[in-house]
Amino acid sequence: MKTLIVAICLAMSSVSIQAQDLPALAKKIDALSSEGVAVSTNGKTLWLVPSPAAIKEKKLSIPRLCAPLKSMGWKGHPKRELKFTPEIDHWVWTWSEAAEGDVIEVELDSEPMLLSELESIRPAADGTLMLPACFAKTFGEKLRYEPQWFKNTVGYWTGPKDYAEWSVTIAEPGQYAVAVLQGLGTGQRGSEAALSLRQGDVVQGEIGFEPAETGHFQNFRWVHLGMIEVTEAGEYQVRIEPRKIAKAALMDVRGVHLGKQAKGVK
């Protein structure tokens, strides 16, 4: 009888700990949850509760999000091992030690958003557009968004046909100065890339460039590429694709900037 009471108390304790670890305002996100994990959120924080099967497998995954990661770890166990791997269309966490009821806490830089929820990037008041890596759609065999705070980049650019694309709304025709926030490791120069402005398969403008060597793939630097002229306002796609990959990878890209120029500036 005593053993039964102890077992019941332990079970109640486990449930109590799990309930306390999730704030009262946390709401479950069905679109991110699965048989392997229950995902809840409150603003920019995610709480991942692995299922018993995931605990046994020591692994869980959720769909890729369009937001950078600020931090992550086991709630209440900050020193416990937790590994993160960004795949092309989903994110994976693995570990060596966990128990049922344990919670992974993930802090994002913005509220969680799925790729399917992405809207066209609209211009600022001055007509310029900022295209962050987290809003890029990636196509190909290896290219993906890497959300870690020390990366926050479109990376794994090793496939010769892999490309990244952003949907944008251009409100005013005219000249736009184009710059890329990119990184490239020492000794990796020699590749060739192209940035194009297009509407579907129709290319409205294109700039060819050689990614600049910056000392490290995550040592990012703004590189001015040139000017693109937009003849009419509308919905466009900005695409970056390789023309030649000389060494390990094309580059890493953290962002693209389209700067609206005053009339008469070329």
**Domain unit count:** 2
Q: Quick one: how many beta strands?
A: 19
- Low-confidence stretches at least 5 residues in length (pLDDT < 50)? 1-17
Fraction of helical residues? under 10%
> DSSP helix count?
2
Q: In percent terms, what proportion of residues is strand? A: over 45%
CATH class of the largest domain: Mainly Beta
Layout of strands and helices, then pairs:
Elements: H1 2-21, E1 27-28, E2 37-42, E3 45-50, H2 52-57, E4 59-63, E5 69-74, E6 83-86, E7 90-94, E8 104-108, E9 129-132, E10 137-139, E11 144-146, E12 153-155, E13 163-170, E14 174-184, E15 192-199, E16 202-209, E17 216-230, E18 234-244, E19 252-260
Antiparallel strand pairs: 1-2, 2-3, 3-8, 4-7, 5-8, 6-7, 9-19, 10-13, 11-12, 13-18, 14-17, 14-19, 15-16, 15-18
Task: Write structural notes for this entry.
- The chain is mainly beta.
- The chain folds into 2 domains: 17-108, Sandwich (Immunoglobulin-like), CATH 2.60.40; 118-260, Galactose-binding domain-like (Jelly Rolls), CATH 2.60.120.260.
- It is built from 2 helices and 19 strands.
- The chain has helices at 2-21, 52-57; strands at residues 27-28, 37-42, 45-50, 59-63, 69-74, 83-86, 90-94, 104-108, 129-132, 137-139, 144-146, 153-155, 163-170, 174-184, 192-199, 202-209, 216-230, 234-244, 252-260.
- It has a 5-stranded antiparallel beta sheet. It has a 5-stranded antiparallel beta sheet with strand order 10-13-18-15-16, with no helix packed on it.
- The longest helix has 20 residues, at 2-21.
- It is globular, with a radius of gyration of 22 Å.
- Residues 1-17 have low confidence and may be disordered.
